[in-house]
Amino acid sequence: MTGSFDADAADDGGIASPARAAIGDAVRARLERNPMVSRIDTPHLEIFGRQDFLSPEECAELRRLIDANAQPSTLFSGSANADYRTSHSGNLSPRDPLVERITERICALTGLPAISGETLQGQRYTPGQEYKVHCDYFPATADYWQRMRGTGGQRTWTTMIYLSAVEAGGETHFPQCEFMVPPVEGMILIWNNMDRDGAPNRFSLHAALPVERGTKYVVTKWFRERPWG
Ligand SMILES: O=C(O)CCC(=O)C(=O)O
Ligand SMILES: [Fe+2]
Question: Where is the Fe2OG dioxygenase domain (predicted)?
Answer without folding.
Answer: 116-225
